[in-house]
Amino acid sequence: MEDMKRRILIPVFALVTLLSLGAEPLYSPTWGFRLDLPEGYELSGGDGKNRFSFVSPFGTFLDLAVYTDKDSVLLLAEEVEKKLANRGQKHSFTYNEKETVLIDLDFTTQGAPGGRNARFTGRALCIQLEQEGRITNPSGGEAQRVKPLLAAIAYGPDRPELRDLHFSILDSIEGGEGDRRLPGAITEYLHPRGIWKREKLANSPLEAFFRENDAAAARSVVEREFSVMKLYLDSPLGQEAWKRFYRAIFKDSFSRLEDAAFILERSWNNSVPGPSGEGIKPEEADRLGTRSEEAAVVASKALEWIQGFTYERDLLGTDFVDLVTAVREGRGDCDSRAMLWAIILEQAAIPAAIMVSRELSHAMGLADIPGQGARFPMEDGSNREIRWLVAETTAPVALGLIGENYSEITKWMGIPFD
């Protein structure tokens, strides 16, 4: 990991509770949508249920509004354009079987400081939400069931370094549970996945199916999210921005690696399970979604396979090999390898995460499985304290074994993905 990663600082973050806003994805319990806001966005207006406005330290804005009285996403997009007197174009497409419209924003507002008009650019996304709502029937009868629509408008001063920020926000939007762990709508529009193609997996006779544009799309997400993270280079919010960088890559890559992870797991599960060591108790094994011995075998075999990759750095670029390329070509830095290992385990229903260290310029994998060795305490997505078993992906050592210089817990930051 390059110098920029080593310079990330300790976070200072103001919590806003209306939407469970914090250093993790934001969720609307009323309408079931999620988004992973970049750090520093603070709630500045709205009604706490259907409308929310945010402002960032960069002078950028995000407005969210849920509508239950619009006949289509296209009509909603046209209304957004009309209200803003927008000069940009709009693009209609289908995302995960949902009607979706992307709007290029270019508009002018009056009343800027000094009485000047201000030009803003950005993007807006109008999308159907999965969760049905109910609205009161004006005639007093039974409440009507509606399919709500979301308008998300991300905009700010017309500066090149802010364009990726707007795209990143909108790409993180999940219209419901069906969008979890899928590439975002913006990425799917800009980089259509294409036809299925069979590709050889690294250091293996095995093959798996990928979409023809998966690698290019995954690289574009890494580059975009790296650009966003660089905005926080000298910010006290930098450490949380670093976490978000990895969450975005995990979300985008998870389904792209689904078949590869399945093929690899199936080959490793033919191994004979070894004895259980310390770790989870037998009565807790069910929450892994698989037998604990099988989980330990898959984790160990995946680790051994990834440890055989070619170590690669890119100090002049993102310093992160996209995970589609990594699994097919067998190369990457420590954080690419740790992320790939975690995704393979998660695809096998084995809880996994990663840990990174600014001070040590290193990353390692984490798994909630039995076994002896180094463990890292961290809460999972359900706020349950877990002692995760550590995986060193860049040296040929067994699961749970790490170098003595990496053993100081306070030097590490854990990153869960749920």
SSE layout and pairings?
Blueprint: H1 3-6, E1 26-27, E2 34-35, E3 42-46, E4 51-55, E5 61-67, H2 73-84, E6 90-95, E7 98-109, E8 118-128, E9 133-135, E10 144-146, E11 149-157, H3 163-171, H4 185-190, E12 196-200, E13 207-211, H5 214-230, H6 238-254, H7 258-268, H8 292-307, E14 310-311, H9 323-329, E15 331-332, H10 334-347, E16 352-357, E17 362-367, E18 375-379, E19 385-391, E20 413-415
Parallel strand pairs: 14-15
Antiparallel strand pairs: 1-2, 3-4, 4-5, 5-11, 6-7, 7-8, 8-11, 9-10, 12-13, 16-17, 16-20, 17-19, 18-19
Helix pairs in contact: 3-5, 5-6, 7-10, 8-10
Structural account:
The protein has 10 helices and 20 strands. The protein is α+β, with helices and mostly antiparallel strands. The protein folds into 2 domains: 7-133 and 145-196 and 212-251, Protein Transport Mog1p, Chain A, CATH 3.40.1000; 254-415, C8orf32 fold, CATH 3.10.620. The strands form 6 sheets. Strands 3-4-5-11-8-7-6 form a 7-stranded antiparallel sheet, with helices on both faces. A 5-stranded antiparallel sheet has the order 18-19-17-16-20. The protein has a two-stranded antiparallel sheet with strand order 1-2.
What is the overall number of helices? 10
CATH topology tier name of the largest domain = Protein Transport Mog1p, Chain A
Beta-strand residue percentage: 25-35%
CATH C-level class of the largest domain is: Alpha Beta
Give the fraction of residues assigned to helices: 25-40%
Rg? 22 Å
Question: What's the pLDDT, averaged over the residues?
Answer: 86
Low-confidence stretches: 1-22, 272-290
Overall strand count? 20
Structural class by helix and strand composition: alpha+beta
